[in-house]
Amino acid sequence: MAEGYAPYWPAPATVCALQTERNGGISLPPWHSLNLGDHVGDDPAHVAHNRGLLAAVVPNEPCWLKQVHGTRVVDAAAVAPGETADAAFSRQVGVVCVVMTADCLPVLFCDRAGTVVAAAHAGWRGLLDGVLEATVAAMQVAPADILAWLGPAIGPSNFEVGPEVRAAFTAYDAGAAVAFVPGREGRFLGDLGQLARQRLKSVGVTAVFGGDRCTVNEPDHFFSYRRDGVTGRMASLIWLA
Which CATH number applies to 4-240? Predict the structure, then answer.
């Protein structure tokens, strides 16, 4: 049985969400076991089986995307499977938005009225370029009425980056400097969650939850590309009921 948990956030009753973990599937090492990514070298039959396990607990086949660390946002009800995008939204009941991650930050969104949901894949490149802002804009509701949940991602004690990454963020917003602390040999440790909260706040989204699970530090629960190299992918899913 596919393992996962529901986000803890004050979403309205019409909003359903699920975060998968790494256990409960049939993939063999190094993808063991509930790998949902079909682009990481795993046996396609195993991935299909794992996705079938997931499909049994959601209302319809999720809108799987080809993620490229960009900022394109699509309507999950109107795109073909495998569409290139890094975020999706839906206003239709039963349409399942999904993003896959293994260190990047998954962000789920809904409005307080329970009329629109969205999911975004936010690695540092997508965060820098504005994928969260683009997702908020695509929802077409007042930002003050939006709730956001930050899923499991590489934590601030493990996300080591070069000075060029810090420089890119601070060039956009000098306030981003507080999300970086000095690391080894001139490098920095970055806080993806803090950067995400800053970007969301900049467009008026202040009701932000989650962000307290580190993929690197929880090998029994989560895949981590930074920790393991070849590994599987988790899914963060949201839909209207």
Answer: 3.60.140.10
